[in-house]
Structure prediction request, 354 residues.
Amino acid sequence: MHDYLDAHKQVTLDYLRDYLGRRKALLQTAGAWGGDVVERLLDFTAGGKMIRGALVYLGYALAGGTLSGAVAPIAAAMELTQSFLLIHDDIMDHDQQRRGMPSIHAQYAELAWKRGYRGDAQHFGEAMGICSGDIAFFLACDLIGECDLDAAVYRALMKRFTDEVTLVGVAQMHDVTNGVRLDDVPETEIIQLYRYKTGRYTFSLPLILGATAAGADSDLNRTLGAVGEEIGIIFQIKDDEIGIFSSDTQIGKPVGSDVSEDKKTLLRARLFAAAPPTERATLEKLFGAPSVTRHDVDYVGALVDSLGVRAGLQDELDSRAVALHGRIAKLFPAGGEPVEVLRQLVEYNLKRDR
Prediction:
């Protein structure tokens, strides 16, 4: 699977680099920031795993497509869209790091400080970050237009693309709201958030876009969408665990940000439900605190382990993975390399540590 992802990351990156090189001249007609934002977007995007782009190729292959270069613009569009969402997400979460480097708004804030710009450097950085994210999304929409596809297929692609990204926006609104809610968020709402902020956008959408470009019917797209949702839920539950038990270096941003931001994760919900009153009182002080130390995060992690929350979540992940493998086998009984990559993707998300 890693070889597959790495190979398609390079193809996607090459196409994106060429595309941004061609668009740079247009952006520069509006001023020097046009060239600056192109370079920052390229560096930022290249720093990720670029899994979504690779999944476009995978969806195309699963639907019987043979000319994978035909979907390179879609793959590149998915990666620019991911950058758009991450740039805005970092601003909303006040994250100063992403992928082991300063987040885009932090880069611009530092630039303002170095140049001695008047006013609040942080505000300048956030404003420039919002503009950068917007530009990334507009370019992503333009990229999809570079596909040499039948007009009806193109319309179907754009409809699916815009619908799903719009749903991510609504899910993000719920995520922001959850961060300031004082009540416990029901698990059904948490899973719904995982489904629409992560599952459908990260896995369902690229698989469906690739399959649509290959001429997939609505039944295949519907099933690929359901498979993608389940992979995404596994991914997010595992991500919540990594956010507590990993390191800054491994995940490319500060460990414990979910604690300081009081993210209403499934792990948090089950931890609070399992904690005795004295421990829960301590947890209520830690989650949402302006400053969370490594010691605080280790304390939370120890409770997650000792109360059986981590083991319980792993059991749930294993159960979801077994059901998902069964669904994949039923959908693609003949097997083949693309199907094996899809199976390996499930296992990777089940066992990853970063």
Notes: The mean pLDDT is 93. The first helix runs from residue 2 to 28.
